[in-house]
Write a structure and sequence with these properties.
Rossmann fold; 2 domains; 3-stranded parallel β-sheet; globular; binds NADP nicotinamide-adenine-dinucleotide phosphate
Length: 288
């Protein structure tokens, strides 16, 4: 019988721990952690993500500041705002919600953020430090996956892990974290050019699926007793839902779950852990 890895429950427990840490800081007379988010334009998805971040901050007792800028803002104006916030001593974490309008270079903006306030972990300094195994801010989804594996005591030392997908925000960083000294998993990364992919995935003790192809991982690709972490979140039509859609993962849950020791659901697995990782990083930035 498989066990569900419950991201909602785990993230709620972590938020409770963070709120307790904030109460302790307040009792000692310290300032509470402060996160600022810059939102450029009014893309629906970005609005939702940022509003979640503001709500999460409020729940744990952080201060948050939302800075809205018009979609027509120039790159120079945005960079000037980042510079101003970099120098604000009352601010611990700074994020710029992506994507940005086409006339603004995302790389330039990410490069401009002070790495010590880069709680999204996208700055090349943080990416480089993560790769080198040095203390760094790790981006939210890979950090959330590692935290889930840790809290469910999934044995990683020497485990065969197959990461499906090699994006800069999920597959690549999680593969690096899993293979780090001290974590010690044996990691294979597969992608759209991989030959005999099913054979490789079938060897895995732990499968991390991050490709954005609903139901791609089927039961014939999964070893009996494997641990399956499903990162995929694709909207698929669901006429029975009020919204007309639902989220579906990269794993065909119905057929795969019975073969697993542990599996994350979609929604309610990795997603909530991604959200809570930003809070963990902001608390860390404040404590520094
Ligand atoms: P991405 O940037 O589009 O990268 C997808 C990766 O999957 C690429 O490396 C691609 O290979 C690989 N791929 C695509 N089709 C494949 C196939 N048929 N076989 C093998 N590999 C294949 O995606 P992403 O940003 O990493 O996101 C992946 C999924 O995770 C999406 O559903 C996204 O919505 C979800 N996501 C969820 C969270 C969360 O918090 N739950 C966070 C981030 C992302 P190539 O490199 O060869 O093209």
């Amino acid at each position: 019988m498989y066990q569900i890895i419950d991201g909602n429950e785990t993230a709620a427990a972590i938020r409770g721990e963070i709120a307790a840490a904030v109460r302790e800081m307040t009792a000692r007379g310290s300032r509470v952690p402060h996160l600022a988010a810059i939102l450029v334009g009014n893309d629906g998805g970005s609005e939702t993500y940022v509003s979640h971040k503001v709500k999460d901050c409020a729940e744990v007792g952080f201060r948050s500041t939302l800075i809205r800028m018009d979609a027509s803002v120039s790159e120079e104006e945005l960079l000037a705002k980042v510079d101003e916030l970099n120098r604000d001593p009352e601010l611990d974490g700074l994020i710029v919600q992506l994507p940005l309008p086409d006339h603004i270079s995302e790389n330039k903006v990410i490069d401009a953020i002070n790495p010590e306030k880069d709680v999204d972990g996208f700055h090349p300094v943080n990416v480089g430090r993560m790769v080198a195994g040095l203390p760094s801010f790790v981006s939210a989804t890979p950090a959330g996956i590692m935290e889930l594996l840790k809290r469910y005591h999934i044995p990683l030392k020497g485990a065969e892990c197959v990461v499906v997908g090699r994006s800069n925000i999920v597959g690549r960083p999680v593969s690096i974290l899993l293979s780090q000294k001290g974590i010690d998993a044996t990691v294979t990364v597969v992608h759209s050019r991989t030959r005999d992919m099913a054979d490789i995935i079938r060897r895995a003790d732990i499968i991390i699926a991050a490709i954005g192809k609903p139901g791609f991982i089927t039961s014939d690709m999964v070893k009996e007793g494997a641990v399956v972490i499903d990162v995929g979140t694709t909207r698929v039509p669901a006429p029975e839902k009020k919204a007309g859609w639902r989220l579906r993962g990269d794993v065909d849950f119905e057929s795969v779950a019975p073969r697993c020791a542990y599996i994350t659901p979609v929604p309610g697995g990795v997603g909530p852990m991604t959200r809570v990782s930003l809070l963990i990083n902001t608390l860390k930035a404040c404590k520094r």
